[in-house]
Amino acid sequence: MQDSAKVGEKRILVTGAAGFLGSHLCERLINEGHKVVGIDNFFTGKKRNVAHLLSHPCFELREHDIVKPFTDETGFDEIYNLACPASPIHYQYDPVQTTKTCVHGAINMLDLARTSGARILQASTSEVYGDPEIHPQPEHYRGNVSSIGPRACYDEGKRCAESLFFDYHREYGLPIKVVRIFNTYGPRMDPLDGRVVSNFIVKALVGDDITIYGDGSQTRSFCFVDDLIDGFIRMMATGDDQTGPVNLGNPEEFTMLELADLVTKAIGSRSKTAFLPLPKDDPTRRRPDITLAKAMLGWSPMMPLRLGLAETIAYFASLLADERGTTSASDADVARLSGRRVDTEVQRHKPGFAASKSASSSEPSRATLVSRYAKPQMTG
Ligand code: NAD
Ligand code: UDP
């Protein structure tokens, strides 16, 4: 990379920058004094997620599909490869494009890392373990994945991306970092992407039935977004010999029935539960073994689910209040719904709050958020 970079200041590429995780990562890197170039094709990402960063001198957002090669004359010190739809309804919408994003996208970013002399981090996933037979899942577990089912475009795409990362490391000595992310939640999740935390919260807020797929006994472990981003940063800072893969997730495990109960109680919602068929190949249990992350990164998640849910509920409450055209009422709603004191000024300056406010008016399609939530959802 360029020699002119100040000590500690790096030029960093984030793919999937306008997505849920990407937007938080860009914000964290900019706050640490780095120059960030974000690229996104806006398939699931939203400009409003990074609206508060657009005028920042250290941030640049470019529209680009990583399935195509990306060129940049200046080069990068680090690349975080996050671009890929993450929710089942989105990655199954165009499965061939999902595979291309995982595989061609990885090749393009790995080639860019080689020519830039950058280290590169891959956002892999707990889905590489499929429907696991070992519980909790350690990194050495090789998984139980269907190569022909509806989740395969994502699961196998991510597995192939991991193999490419390790081949570039072995063949070309490229410094790689692979993190396997377990279910993560927080402000700026897309309310319409069908993931369980956003679905339950939005349905509970608008009073619709909470949709439980199957009997609700399947488990997941939920990591708050700030904890996860901290894990990314720590992983990128490790020495070149530390490749991972390393699990990043919160090892506290909940059934979907328990999650529904937590959400409805936190909101004080009168929503009932509706049981719908379990999507095909839906994993029955998932919980990370984070022994390696603790030892290698000194990392473990700090945010308890109850508190993380309160922040996430506050975010969705403000989003819904915007859609309903209320403003002053939203702060009271948010305070009531999140069960914590909300300082209006502080809340207004929270990135997610500001972003949701500024962007909703420029995205008329989202004006029907509340009514769309009354309609049946695709279950994957
Ligand atoms: P997201 O859908 O909010 O963000 C993904 C971003 O990538 C979006 O902005 C989307 O527009 C962009 N994108 C998709 N295809 C692209 C392409 N071909 N070119 C350029 N941009 C493209 O999802 P997220 O939750 O922020 O997930 C980010 C990454 O983390 C993904 O790679 C996902 O597989 C991984 N991950 C997330 C979770 C989670 O719980 N959030 C769990 C495991 C893994
Ligand atoms: N789920 C559910 N109701 C919903 C959305 C999801 O019961 O409205 C279930 C889903 O079947 C899965 C779990 O919640 O068992 C987590 O789903 P999500 O799509 O969030 O993530 P993933 O399946 O990729 O872990």
- Biggest sheet record: 7 strands, parallel
DSSP summary: helix tally: 13
Q: What is the CATH class name of the largest domain?
A: Alpha Beta
Beta fraction of the residues? 5-15%
Coarse morphology:
globular
CATH topology name of the largest domain, in short, is Rossmann fold
What do these coordinates show?
With 380 residues, the protein is an alpha/beta fold. It folds into 2 domains: 11-185 and 223-248, NAD(P)-binding Rossmann-like Domain (Rossmann fold); 196-218 and 255-282 and 305-372, UDP-galactose 4-epimerase, domain 1 (Alpha-Beta Complex), CATH 3.90.25.10. The chain contains 13 helices and 13 strands. The protein has helices spanning 20-31, 88-91, 95-116, 152-172, 196-206, 225-236, 256-267, 291-297, 305-324, 328-338, 344-349, 351-360, 369-372, and strands at 11-15, 35-40, 59-63, 78-81, 119-125, 176-181, 184-185, 210-213, 219-221, 223-224, 246-248, 253-255, 273-276. The strands form 4 sheets. It has a 7-stranded parallel β-sheet with strand order 3-2-1-4-5-6-11, with helices on both faces. Strands 7-10 form a two-stranded parallel ribbon. Strands 8-13 form a two-stranded parallel ribbon. Mean pLDDT is 86; it is low at 326-380. The structure holds nicotinamide-adenine-dinucleotide (NAD) and uridine-5'-diphosphate (UDP). Residues 15-16, 18-22, 40-45, 65-67, 82-86, 101, 105, 123, 125, 181, 183-184, 190 line the site of nicotinamide-adenine-dinucleotide. Nicotinamide-adenine-dinucleotide binds at residues 15-16, 18-22, 40-45, 65-67, 82-86, 101, 105, 123, 125, 181, 183-184, 190.
